[in-house]
Amino acid sequence: MKTSTCRWTRARRRSISRSATIQIRYFSKTRADLAWGMNFFSNQLSEYFLESILLALVLGSLVGIERQWNRRLVDLKTNALVAMGAALFMLLSKTPQGFVEPIQMAAQIVVGVGFLAGGIMFRDSRQAQGLNTAATLWCSAALGALCGMNRWFDASFASIAIVLANSLLGMLAQYLNKKMGIADNLTDSVLFQWICSASDALAVHEKMTAMSRTSLWEIHEVRLERHGVDNSLLSITALFEQGESDKGALSIQQATAGWPAFNFSWRKL
Fold first, then answer.
1. Is residue 24 predicted with pLDDT exceeding 70?
2. CA distances (Å), 196 to each of 211, 228, 232, in order?
3. Fewer CB within a 10 Å sphere, N or C end of the chain?
4. Alpha helices by DSSP H, the chain
5. What is the pLDDT of residue 122?
6. Is pTM, for the whole model, over 0.70?
7. What letter does residue 46 receive in the DSSP assignment?
8. Cβ(256)–Cβ(204) under 8 Å?
9. How far apart are CA 194 and CA 201, in angstroms?
10. Could you read off the pLDDT of 90-132 as tens digits, one per residue?
């Protein structure tokens, strides 16, 4: 009985040893095949291909985040795809000896993006819409072209400049338009109404006027009417930039929470 047990144990050990050897050989072969595949894949790609398209995707997304945060016509993925597409076209002109006529390829990218930008611009009864968004799309294509040319530092600096220009210059342009009395960019109307006493209505009007001087919206119309026996209805129509009316109205609602009034309401016109 003891001899049979020893034989079974030795056979079991030999079986485990053979199984472990097979597994080691299998994993070694798999690792070798994977390494060969990666080397083959990397040899087929041109130099800096992955780095260029990934950086173009990241920088285009950075520009697109600012656009989507401000609820513009073109969002994150559009800017990212335009930047990556421009990088791919620039890499198309690359050979082992260098780039072949990159200026002509860049010119063709400009023409192609011009058609895309033209498709997002439109004009309503007051002004043209989408000009800034189209220009941003054009800049995203330039970012991608720089990435495709392996000018990564230039592309990174340009992306930061584009985001700052859209953010800071946009606020500066709104402020200057308001100071110069140019309200073409203020297209959304919101009606604010307070029910209060006559003296409180004058105080609310003065506070709203003071608030408008330091904000990016302006007062368009003011009406004061009797409401009941002793109260007044103060109606103020304010103009906001397109897409900013909800945020602006909520900020005014928070600022006027402690003002003297029996009732306060607002609605978009």
1. no
2. 19, 10, 5
3. N
4. 2-44, 49-69, 76-92, 102-119, 131-148, 152-164, 170-179, 198-213, 245-255
5. 62
6. no
7. P
8. yes
9. 8
10. 888 887 777 778 888 888 888 888 887 777 766 544 555 677 8
Q: What gap in Å lies between CA 9 and CA 13, rounded to an integer?
A: 6
Domain coordinates of the chain in residue numbers? 49-179, 186-268
Separation between Cα atoms, residue 213 and residue 153, nearest integer Å:
41
Q: Is 138 helix (H, G, I), strand (E, B) or coil?
A: helix
Q: Count other Cβ atoms within 10 Å, centred on residue 194.
A: 26
CATH superfamily name and code, 186-268: ACT domain (3.30.70.260)
Structure tokens at 66: 């600012």
Write out the two tokens for 267. Answer: 């609605």
Q: Pairing relation of β-strands 218-227 and 231-241?
A: antiparallel
Query: Pairing state of beta strands 98-99 and 122-123?
Result: unpaired
Count how many Cα atoms sit within 13 Å of the Cα of residue 180 in the half-sphere of its side chain. 9
Identity of the residue numbered 52 = S
pLDDT for res 84 = 92
In the numeric block, the tokens 């895309």 are attached to 116
Tens of pLDDT, residue by residue over 37-76, are 455 445 555 667 888 889 999 999 888 888 877 766 667 8
Token pair, residue 223, equals 């009406």
Q: Tokens representing 221?
A: 């119309």
Asked if 152 and 53 count as a contact pair (C-beta separation under 8 A), the reply is no
DSSP letter (8 states) at residue 27:
H
Residue 48 phi, psi dihedral angles, 5° rounding: 65, 20
- Looking at residue 182, its pLDDT comes to 52
Token pair for 107: 């010119």
